[in-house]
Amino acid sequence: MRDASARAAEAAEAERLAALIPRERAQYLVEAAEGWAAAGRSDRAGELFEAAIADGGHVVGDARTYYAGFLFDTGRPDRALHTLAELRRSRPDDPFAYVCAGEVLEEAADLDGALSWFTTGLAFYQNFDTSDAVDDATLMQLLSSRQRVRRLLELPPDSWDDIAASAQAVLLADLTDP
C-alpha cells in the first residue's frame, strides 16, 4: 500500500488537472477526493466529492456512487443511502453507475440493495446472450456481480445467472487457450 504522502501528491496532481481541463473536471475531482481519502484527509475528500457532484460533469460510474462509498467508509451510512436514493431517482444513463452503486452496497453488506442495482442496470441491455456479455465489460460485470450476490443470498440460478456462467466459461477458455 502506498504511503499517505504519495497519495496526497497524487490527489494534489488530480486537483491541478481538474483546474486545467474543465471538460474532465468532475472526473479529476473524484480522483483527487479518493486520493485525499486514502491519505487520511477525509475533510478534503468530502469537499471534493461534493464539488464533483455539483460540477455535474461526466464521471465514469457517476460521482455520487464514489461519494456514497466514501460516506459508508467514514461512518455515515444514512447519508450514503440518501445519496444512492437520489442517484436512483435521477435514473443515470451510464450502466456502469449501476455496477458501482451495487458494489458500494455489497461492500456495505446490503445484499438486497446491491442485487436491485445490478438487476436494474441490466435493463440497459435488450435480449442479450453469452456473446454479448463476453464482448461488453459492463454487461459482464453486471451479470457476474448479480450472480455473486444471488449466490450469497442463496437464491436459485436464473437465466441471467446461466448467461453469466456461460460467459465466464468462454472467457476462462480464452485465457487458457494457447
Structure report:
The chain has 178 residues and is mainly alpha-helical. It has a domain of 59 residues. The chain is built from 10 helices and no strands.
Throw out a few tags for this protein:
single chain
Class by alpha and beta content: mainly alpha
Q: How much of the polypeptide forms β-strand, as a percent range? A: under 5%
Q: What's the story with the biggest beta sheet? A: none
- Say how many strands there are: 0
Order of helices and strands: HHHHHHHHHH
Amount of helix = over 70%
Stretches where pLDDT is under 50 for at least 5 consecutive residues are none
Q: Please compute the radius of gyration using only Cα atoms.
A: 18 Å
**Termini, distance in Å?**
34 Å
Shape: globular
Average pLDDT metric = 95
